[in-house]
Write a structure and sequence with these properties.
Blueprint lengths: L1 E4 L5 E14 L2 H5 L9 H13 L6 H15 L3 E11 L2 E5 L2 E8 L5 E9 L5 E19 L23 E16 L6 H17 L11 H15 L4 E7 L5 E3 L17 E3 L8 E5 L5
Antiparallel strand pairs: 1-2, 2-3, 3-6, 4-5, 6-7, 7-8, 8-9, 9-12, 10-11
Helix pairs in contact: 4-5
Length: about 290
């Protein structure tokens, strides 16, 4: 964690977890047992902490590029490095409607991510991302006309193993995972992160007073992906999104006596699986 102290007494903590992977002339370590060119894990750890002293950690993408530059400059036998950075956000505590200058709380489960890959003599390839961004809508989601039901491509499943009934209205929850490739090393990384996240929320939830229907999780995910790509144009080249389902099932679907059911269908229980894992990709690149 890096603590940036500003002149007005305001503090800004940035907590990041860094992983470094090195490529280069290390063959003799495998073939002859030589450690002559091995940069020890302890050295890599110490390097990250020392570099954090001279960098504001203004964004995980910029810190990742800073680390790449150091290793390629310091060790001439390293030919490539990949740096992955995960940031855990701290939210400023509000006291009587006013932001506290130096007190914080972890208000969300999401993690911001960045991945920077650089080969010697080349520009860095920079990716941003988000993981474990959990969202929930409690209505306006349906799952109908799938295989084994009227209106689908196969109304009668010959296997006889389609047991799930259709749902005209259900809850929809997912832990969004997404990554995107920046078009330049000078992109407004923090601004893009905020815009991508905002686009995801708006497409998933819809307007505050009316919401938006989700006839399929795939369609909702696709619209989230396209909206995020457009929100940070032209700074994002490609974006990938995955939305693993987090299911909350009505109490009456449990094998319990009817007198234990929730009469208003307002009690639900979570299940670990199985659940769908859906992915989408959108790109600005020309297709050959």
């Amino acid at each position: 964690m890096k603590l940036n102290r500003h002149p007005d007494g305001t503090h800004e903590p940035r907590e990041m977890t860094v992983n470094t992977l090195l490529w280069g002339d290390f063959a003799e370590s495998w073939t002859n047992g030589s450690n002559a060119k091995i940069v020890a894990t302890e050295t890599q750890k110490n390097t990250i902490y020392q570099l954090a002293k001279t960098h504001t950690l203004s964004s995980p993408e910029e810190f990742g590029m800073y680390i790449c530059e150091h290793f390629l400059k310091m060790y001439d036998w390293i030919t490539k490095i990949k740096v992955t950075v995960h940031e855990d956000p701290w939210g400023r505590i509000m006291i009587d409607g006013k932001q506290h200058k130096h007190a914080f709380t972890k208000t969300t489960s999401e993690r911001r991510t960045a991945e920077v890959t650089q080969s010697r003599g080349s520009q860095p390839v920079v990716m941003g991302g988000i993981t474990n961004f959990i969202v929930l809508k409690t209505t306006q989601s349906s799952f109908e006309k799938f295989v084994g039901h009227p209106g689908s491509h196969m109304p009668k499943d010959p296997s006889g193993w389609t047991t799930l009934g259709e749902a005209q209205d259900r809850s929809f929850s997912t832990a969004v995972e997404s990554s995107w490739v920046f078009s330049t090393t000078k992109a407004p990384f923090n601004d893009c992160y905020a815009k991508v996240k905002d686009a995801f929320i708006k497409q998933f939830a819809g307007p505050a007073d009316t919401g938006v229907p989700s006839p399929s999780a795939q369609q909702t995910q696709h619209e989230m992906c396209l909206a995020a790509l457009e929100a940070c144009a032209p700074h994002i080249l490609d974006i990938n999104i995955a939305t693993p389902n987090l299911h909350y099932m009505p109490l009456h679907s449990l094998s319990i006596p009817p007198h234990m059911h929730a009469p208003n269908a307002d009690v639900f229980f979570p299940i670990d699986g199985p659940s769908g894992y859906i992915q989408s990709t959108a790109s600005r690149r020309s297709k050959l």
